Amino acid sequence: MNYQETLDYMFARLPMFQRIGSAAYKANLDNTIALCKLLNNPEKNFKSTHIAGTNGKGSTSHLLASILQSAGYKVGLYTSPHLKDFRERIKINGEKISEQNVVNFIEQYIIPAVENKLELSFFEMTVGMAFDYFANEQVDIAIIEVGLGGRLDSTNVISPELSIITNISFDHTALLGKTLEAIATEKAGIIKPETPVIIGEKTEETKNVFYNKSNDSNAQLTFADEIYNVKKLSYKNNGQLLLSFDLYRKSTLLMSNMECELLGFYQQKNIPAIICAVDELRKRGWYIPETSVRNGIKNVITKTGLLGRWQILGEQPLVIADTGHNEAGIKEVLSQISITPHKQLHFVIGMVNDKDVSTILGLLPKNAIYYFSQATIPRALDAGELAKQAAVFNLKGNIYKSIPEALEEAKKNADNDDLIFVGGSTFTVAEVL
Q1: Are 83 and 73 within 8 A, CB to CB?
Q2: For 37-88, how does the pLDDT look when each residue is reduced to its tens digit (9 = 90+)?
Q3: How many C-beta atoms lie closer than 10 Å to residue 224's C-beta?
Q4: What fold is seen in the domain 311-430?
Q5: How far apart are CA 409 and CA 5, in angstroms?
Q6: CATH 3.40.1190.10 in the chain, residue ranges
């Protein structure tokens, strides 16, 4: 098979949560364990850090990988979903796995395994591919992002140096539970015996879940937002637009004038957990000087290729895309929009059909002009249905056949001092990058 034929095989034969939803969710880790055994347990042959959470886990994974790369380490990075190319999911020092490696893995392991009745999901297969690749390439450490939840996620077979849970909010409630405590319990499933765990945000609703799980596991527990905080967020432009901020340890200034290629002010919620992770890795013998922390945070996009986080796609009019797609993520996006100078907001929106659409629509500004469309995946919510539901909240606009068509129409209608925002789902953003 060539690369395209291999991708066709993967997408056509194996369920994928990001495309079809809950039908791809497995109730145990049996298949992942069986596949890892078939691969001679590659997950035991490299060190790792495990990252879960409702929002921010992708940015956190990439930022930590960038810091470790800046410190001179060979760093594997496994994330999901991809935006443009499947190979974005599996990288070493920012370089995507080769097409030939993808083909070889499927031909050598997956096709025989499937023929022998091992019914692998898309996600189980890609996790096995990542672990095999990182072991073969002898990475110093791999940053492994959880796909969904934690306890039953296919990545949850590793024994990491430490675990990070960024935050807890409502998402995938049909699978993870309808309360924050239930969702936190699923995320806390990545906490391992005698392995440090860092929680990005401490909340009244979830703190006891983490206290209890860490106590049961004899795992050192750290709430990052009790130790570090980020202040004085602003933009600076010295030929390159960067987010600028100061890092404090409690009330003491620790690092001033830090810079980041990621422009979303919501990164202030991710930075404390990342710095706590650096502290913990240092305790475990990893050499990570302050210059590597600064360089890694500043150059995260350059070093890792992260896409879709408050990403500027055009100017005059300003066009911005962001993958925030659940209640908490949309609130962060709207907060950022509110402080971004603009005359009229044009909102290109597409969503998926298994989200709490009404909750998100209820948050959106009524004075924006909406461009309703849908991504080209089976899980996309029909654009007409989205417009119909939006009308209940007095959100007005037209319907378009595709996301790119909707964006082009927004550009035609927008004045130079307007803002065009593209979002609502990861897949909406993928189609304009």
Answers
A1: no
A2: 999 999 999 999 999 998 899 999 999 999 999 999 999 999 998 999 999 9
A3: 25
A4: Protein-Tyrosine Phosphatase; Chain A (3.90.190)
A5: 34
A6: 3-304
